[in-house]
Specification:
- It contains seven helices and five strands, in the order E-H-E-H-H-E-H-H-H-E-H-E.
- With 132 residues, it is α/β, with parallel strands linked by helices.
- The longest helix is centred in the first third of the chain and has 20 residues, at 13-32.
- The protein is globular, with a radius of gyration of 14 Å.
Length: 132
């Protein structure tokens, strides 16, 4: 039986972008390796699903051009579940009402708004937990 991974991105990428990119890369790699992966974006880690923020990461050139988009596409199309903290998004200026303008395209097809109940659900169902 395949292991169930729960990967939580909570680090503020303005403080430690490298840590967030490593978390995204590990989630994408686990998906590519055939694992069942759930991802939760919380605290200031929610910035990693903001369209403008991802564009700025790509433009900074700290990783090869387009790589962040490829990894995020792997997560948004291949993870079993992708959750996002409603409260953390609100603290970063994103609400359900303005999300269409702020989040990565198609978010409503792959993302579930949640809070602590989602963290508990996903972590309880996992075999492996990684926090970045």
């Amino acid at each position: 039986m395949s292991k169930k991974f729960f990967i939580k991105i909570v680090t503020d990428p303005d403080v430690d972008l490298r840590k967030c990119i490593v978390g995204i890369a590990c989630a994408a790699q686990a998906i590519n390796d055939g694992y069942d992966v759930d991802v939760f974006f919380a605290a200031d880690g929610v910035k990693m699903i903001h369209a403008a923020y991802i564009e700025s990461v790509n433009e900074k050139g700290s990783i090869p051009d387009g790589m962040i988009y490829d990894m995020m596409n792997t997560i948004t199309s291949g993870a079993s579940k992708v959750y996002c903290s409603t409260g953390s998004q609100a603290a970063n200026g994103v609400t359900k009402e303005n999300a269409d303008e702020m989040l990565l395209d198609g978010y409503s097809d792959w993302m579930t708004w949640s809070g602590p109940p989602g963290v508990i659900e996903l972590s309880a169902a996992s075999d492996v937990q990684l926090v970045y």
